Amino acid sequence: MKKRSFYSRLAFVLLLLIPISAFSQDNAIDSGATAWMLTSTALVLLMIPGLAMFYGGLVRTKNVLGTMMHSFAAMGIMTLLWVICGYSMAFGPNVLGGWFGWNADNFLLRGIDESVSNGIPEYVFSMFQAKFAIITPALIAGAFAERVSFKAYCIFIALWGVLIYNPLCHWVWASDGFLFNMGPKGAIDFAGGTVVHISAGISGLVAVLYLGGRKSFKHLQMRPNNLVMTLIGGGLLWVGWFGFNAGSSLTSGLTTAQAITVTQVAAAAGAIAWMIIEGLHQGKATALGFVSGVLAGLVAITPAAGVVQPGGAIILGVLASVICYYAIILKNKLGYDDTLDAFGIHGVGGIVGALCLSFFIRDSWMRDAAEAAGGSWTMWQQFGIQLLAVGIAIAYAAIGTFLILFVVNKFVKIRSTDEAEMKGLDNFYHGERGYGMINPN
Questions:
Q1: pTM above the 0.70 mark?
Q2: Residue 63 has what DSSP assignment?
Q3: If you write DSSP's letter for every residue of 383-426 in order, what string do you get?
């Protein structure tokens, strides 16, 4: 009895000590939420090589590496800029009237070394947001693929990230951003419909109009070099988008589950809608059409993932596919050379999602908005907020992109030379070839 009593007491003491020691190590970190955010960060990073494959397969053989390098270069350039100043500009307190944020303590991320916020190490949040800063300028590159100098592209995205992306991110997602605080619950952009897709699509369109089309693009058939690679890239984007959208909940709970569900639903609805449209319009459903529909659905649900239910996700996916499909047809009629439809899918799809989400917001969100507004709040009032936010993003991205292009072009010619375009960007700018590595000379 005495021995049993001794062991019972020892077990009781150990049970008390173990949780106390574990709690004392770090009582602020939510390990479940942190694990999910680490996973989401990796998933969003996966989207950049996925985008490189998606874009790379759609261009001509002589430009496949140069096109993929646009995505990979963004991974390096934008990461360093984010650590140096981007995170502070995006999420620091307002400066210059709220144009962007700034916190000198966060230069090189020094001020977040031991910081934990909402159960997540601030390092994790910063690196998650860094992936958005990477993929946005990489999306722009699809608009002017096959005709830009690699040096000029690198300078352009560095300036664009600092002067366009960081302020937009601050306005929409920082706690003192003016769009974040517009209306009772702000302009809705759960995961980047405005910050990422609209800004990238509009900037791509401006760049296309500024630079002009590829040589002979109206007279030659410029076929994709590898649609298999494009489909694989599209699949990686679909997988990575779960981190993109569901990770934006910054938790591991109900909102995460809601976001991941509507992401899958919208992608599927967009893909099926595009196949049906193609079948009716062209008599065939193409592989490229399927993956284009997937992207249209994913882009449209991105701003809405935290506020709509699956029924709304289906409608948004279908709407985005229909409107993006006809936006691309209109592009062909107007004759501007948006090479890989960065504006036709990301710009148009982002606008569709950011505006139309207003009509499919779940009741609980609207009740909270009405309470915050001190009485009532309708979908039309929220639509007005969304319309204003979209208009501001379009105007800022368009004007800012034009000014950056104009200034950069004064120092480094952005448009590739005729020789580079004829020879191919892979060999001219990188001294390599995507297939075979054979020197024809």
A1: yes
A2: G
A3: HHHHHHHHHHHHHHHHHHHHHHHHHHHHHS--BPPHHHHHH-HH
